[in-house]
Amino acid sequence: MNRYEPQGVMTEARPPRKRRVWLWAIIVAVLALTAFGGAVYAPIAAFKAKPFPAPPPAAVSTITAVYEEWMPLIEVVGSLKPVRGADLSVEVPGIVDEVAFESGGDVGAGARLIRLRDNDDVAKLNTLEAARDLAQTNYNRDEAQLARQLIAKAQFEVTAANLKSLQAQVAEQQAVIAKKTLRAPFAGHLGIRAVNAGQYISPGTPIVTLQALDPIYLDFNLPQQTLQQIKVGQEVSVKVDTYPQTIFTGKISTIDPKVDPATRNVAVRATLPNRDRKLLPGMFATANITTGTPQRYITLPQTAITFNPYGNMVYVVSEGTDATGKATLVTKQTVVTTGQTRGDQIAVLTGLKEGDQVVSAGQMKLQNGAAVSVNNAIQPSNDSNPRPVER
Predict the structure, then answer these.
(1) Is the distance from CB of 193 to CB of 217 less than 8 angstroms?
(2) Bridge partners, residue 182, by sequence
(3) What percent of the chain has pLDDT over 70?
(4) Domain range spanning residue 302?
(5) CATH number of the domain that residue 138 is part of
(6) Would you give the end-to-end CA distance of the chain in angstroms?
């Protein structure tokens, strides 16, 4: 009790002035926030009460699933090789004395192509032949004298050995001279000559290429699981980019008796007639091998298939309703089993029936049950044998 207050009189406690001001400020702020929240919430609640507008149907193109005949084929790629082919060169050095062919000509087996200067070699051959003839004369004389026992047998043996040595030297020199002449090892078609008369060439210098073009080989590889589908004599249809409108036919002539352990592929060779010489060694070629009788599959363009690691799918279009209950076209995801491909087409083994309307383009923006509108003004390519068009 304050000593200045009268005794026996109780005083009332009053809050400080600053505390009362803060209390009123808090009350006012709470009332303001409550009013503001009500003002904001009212439009949001009204917006939520309204339904969202349905998105417009996605524009897609469709195609009708139909059955088509499929010929079982194995598609391969390979390279053309000549039955016989070689890049010709000489074994010995020298100066070209004669060129006996023209570029691009045909030659027979054994035809002379070029001859190197061989004057010194021919002169040496003449010397050896003269010595050989003399040795032959001595041999004949000593042989007659030995028969009469006029000379010793040892002397006759020396004469015989001398004759054999000279005969060998003559044969060796003849071989040296023969190497100075390059002849065609087989009949074929010559390429562009790479030497001229008077030119010095060393061993291994390319002279000209010689190729036997009719028939011609196509070499390719097949995986080991296809071995049971092919056999020698089976027909092969071949195409090359040089002649896109022409199909060349041939037959399998050789199947390698072993499988490459690194790739598990087997080498196969087909032989093609090439009378017009349109096919040249080194060309890239594609081939189809017929492996059975025709079969019927539902066929779609490959663009209609959505390929996924967990399964391939298509979108089937049917009548339904959109989010507002309005009748429209909707899509349904369907898992399918696909088979072989040919050109732009793919075979569907299971999952579809004939007559189903399948989305062929525009499925990237779809989901199961999505509403669609069909626009078939532009269709993806659906050609079993497409051909590139240069523009």
Answers:
(1) no
(2) 114
(3) 84
(4) 58-68+294-374
(5) 1.10.287.470
(6) 112
